[in-house]
Amino acid sequence: MRNRKKTALAALLAAAAMTTAGCGAEVEPVAQAAVGDGLGLEQVRVGLAFDQGGRGDKSFNDAAAAGLDRAKKELQVDAVEVTPGGESEEERVATLRKLAQEGRNPIIAVGFMYAAAVKTVAGEFPDTTIAIIDDDSVSAPNVVSLVFAEEQGSYLAGAAAALKSRSGKVAFIGGVRTPLLQKFEAGFTAGAVRTRPGTEVSVDYVSTPPDFSGFGSPEKAKKIAAGMLASGADVVYTAAGGSGAGSLQAVAARRGAWAIGVDTDQYQTADPGVRDVILTSMVKRVDNAVFQEIQAFIKGDRGGGVKRFDLKTDGVGYAVSNEKAIAPVLKKVEAARQRLLDGTVTAPTKP
């Protein structure tokens, strides 16, 4: 009987891993990534502008970087990556404008904070395709919006949190209180209370606009998480970019507590001292979005519009790398995922 249970669990883990961590469309390597209108045999020259913190945040920016790295390897594009020298609107405009002036095309702006800058630079360089991640407010013939169903992935994170919690209290920490981050909050809360009625969900944000420092303030996130844990929460989901590192530290210092990561499978990248407390991560396949947008450009798709990545397209999901931790709740989380897929339930986008 024990062997049958182990076999069933292994199959479930394998199925979950396949459906939540797909690599997206595969392509054959090409010698010159240069097909499409007007490029002749020139190599495609991609420019990617990171969000606050840049490469190395083990979260949002690193997911974008993974997509760019894959494009360089498999599509053989020439690519540069930059991080604004400051957080002002002028810095963001200058960053995108410089890439356009250098002939980078397409340009990928990582994060909704680039919205105004994208609108400005897209108008100045109408022949340059600019893709922006996490924003669909800019409508222009040369602007592509890459958006995600964060509420769906967060719903599953909430389900896992509620099922794993011993106290019946879980918590959400957002980087900055914006409509985008509130999608994470709404999905997480709904997933928790619908999966385990009576679950208490506490919510806080590291900062509130116009203060956007909440994506790069790990000490503040650590303090918030510690307070939530002291109040009885024993699972903390943090969607705050680089600030998430502080939250992980607080959870690791609390015996019996669990953390849920975001954007990437943070169990794979976290420091050894905090790795084992990561129950799962809400995986947001920014890497797929970046790679597929570059691939589409190469194939001649240069028009603007909105491309949405959701549960059905493996655009969002949850990680199962910490097999021992997730195993006891995996069957019920998978059941919640199926209900989202078949439309039995809908994850809300607003708290």
Give the gist of this structure.
With 351 residues, the protein is α/β, with parallel strands linked by helices. The protein contains 11 helices and 12 strands. The chain has 2 domains: 24-148 and 286-313, Response regulator (Rossmann fold, 3-Layer(aba) Sandwich), CATH 3.40.50; 150-284 and 316-337, Rossmann fold (3-Layer(aba) Sandwich).
What is the fourth-level CATH superfamily of the largest domain? Response regulator
Instruction: Give the oligomer, counting copies of the same chain as homo and different chains as hetero.
Output: single chain
Kindly estimate the percentage of residues that lie in beta strands according to DSSP.
15-25%
Q: In the CATH hierarchy, what is the architecture of the largest domain at level 2?
A: 3-Layer(aba) Sandwich
Q: Mean pLDDT, rounded to whole units?
A: 91
Strand order of the largest sheet: 2-1-3-4-5-11
Q: What structural class do you assign from the helix and strand content?
A: alpha/beta
CATH class of the largest domain: Alpha Beta
* Structure summary, number of beta strands: 12
Radius of gyration: 20 Å
Structurally, how many domains make up the residues? 2
DSSP helix count? 11
Order of helices and strands: HEHEHEHEEHEHEHEHEHEHEEH
In CATH terms, what is the fold-level topology of the largest domain? Rossmann fold
Biggest sheet character: 6 strands, parallel
Query: What characteristic shape results from the CA principal axes?
Result: globular
Q: Specify the helix fraction band.
A: 40-55%
